[in-house]
Amino acid sequence: MSRPGVRVGSRIRGWYRSTALGLCLITPCLIAPCLTALTPAAAQAQQAEGLRGLVSETDITSSIQSTAETGLPSPRYEPATPGPAEPAETENERSTRAPSTAVERERARTAQNDPTRPVQPPLDTVVTQGIPENEEENSGFERIERAEALNPRTGAIEGDFQATDENPYAPLGLRFGTFTVIPTLEQGLTWTSNADSSTNGSEAIVSQSTLRLNAVSDWARHAATVDAYGIYRKSVSGDEVADIEGGIDGTLRFDLARDYTALASLGYSISPESASSPVIITGVEDRPLRHTIDGSLGLSKDFGKLRLSATGSVSRQQYGDATLIDGSTLSQDERNATLATLRLRTGYAISPALTPFIEGEFGRRFYDETQDSAGYERSATRLAARAGIMVDIEEKLSGEASVGWIAEDLDDERLDTVSGLALAAALNWSPQRGTNVRFDGSTTIEGTTDAGDSGSILYAGTLRLERQIRANLTAEAAAGLSWRDYMSGGHDLTMNGEAGMTWWLNRTLGLTGRARYEKRTSSLPGRDYDATSVFMGIRMQR
Length: 542
Known about the structure:
Region (Disordered): 65-141
CATH class of the domain at 175-541: Mainly Beta
Number of strands: 22
Radius of gyration: 52 Å
InterPro entries: Autotransporte_beta_dom_sf, BBP2_2
Order of helices and strands: HHHHHEEEEEEEEEEEEEEEEEEEEEE
Signal peptide: 1-45
Strand content: over 45%
Protein name: Outer membrane beta-barrel protein
CATH topology of the domain at 175-541: Porin
Structural class: mainly beta
Shape: globular
Helix content: 10-25%
Low-confidence stretches: 1-12, 26-30, 32-53, 66-72, 85-96, 122-131
Distance between the termini: 149 Å
Number of helices: 5
Keywords: Signal
């Protein structure tokens, strides 16, 4: 039987044990929420007071979870003020913090503010899991830029198309300084029915060599051209023929200020005098060589639609001695003369393609000898007036044509004035691509030393057609007509026609051939003749 005091003490001790056990179980549950609530406040207090504190496990856990969910590293913790230097990190004690991306973010901001930076398409936050641009600074997350494609789109392949040369057989030319020079050499044989184009001429086979040079400047301003040629003929069989001729012409254009343009030209040629010359030398075996020197200088100015120009020119003709049948020589010095002229032209452009003009000319012909062997003074004064039109229709039609009157009054009163209609033309026409037509017409006053004769007027015209049949095949045709009117009475009519073709084997070598016929009829005795010739040879160019 128990005692009451003992039972009371046992109950009190049991109650204490139960209370202590309950407190042990309840206390952690009450303290844990308080600690959780106090932890952020303590961290904020440390940042506000500028104290450096430890990183909680919660921050580390949230950083890891953020990185795993979004693929973006969480911003690392940065204290407001630097703390004391930490000991060097050992190999086994590396920091668990994510690496800093401040430098990369600064570079990204700089690139975005660069005006030269190509515009990037807007980012899709769902696809890239990036942060919108307006939330980048507030969230502290780094913006992910869209990566450029490693295999960018390229244009379509056009195939094997290659630009073709417009004329694969045209000469390329040689470069000499600022000039492009195109040399052409032609070598062949000519058969002719009348070797010396005389009334009683006989046939012959003649070797003919022709060299031509064309040079064109390549200047940004001004322009220059040079043309030269040389021809040598030597008979292989038949009638004896041995002659040489050649010439060179150069033009220079200066583009001056205030719409002024200066044009200069100079030329020289040498050739045997033609059998059709108006001067008849009795008993001649070899006709004399004729030297011709031409030079001109002109200045033009445009005043709106008004065109003004002035041109001065000089032409010198000098003759060598003639060889007679008996082997003696006959001097031709009395035929040497110089012609100086001045032309003034005024035109008005009624349209960009048409410019009518009027022109006046004054000149003087000076003979080296005051009197010829017959005692005549043959120096003369020239006057001429012309009206014409200049045409420039792009690549179709260009050139000019004029008509007027020309006269030369000789100093000797016993000699009549040489005068007549003045016709001139130089027109280029291209009716279609690959076809070129050119017409040249001229009026020339010819002097003479025949006793009592004042001279003659020669009208000459040539129509020339060139057609490119194929890239390596060209055809040429020409027709000419001339009329010589003697002041003392009489006339000469000369007609000629020519046709030829050139077949280019390559850009350098070609085969060429042509046929020509010429006939002259005259009211004067001993001047009629006709001649047929055929040429076959090769042509080389560079």
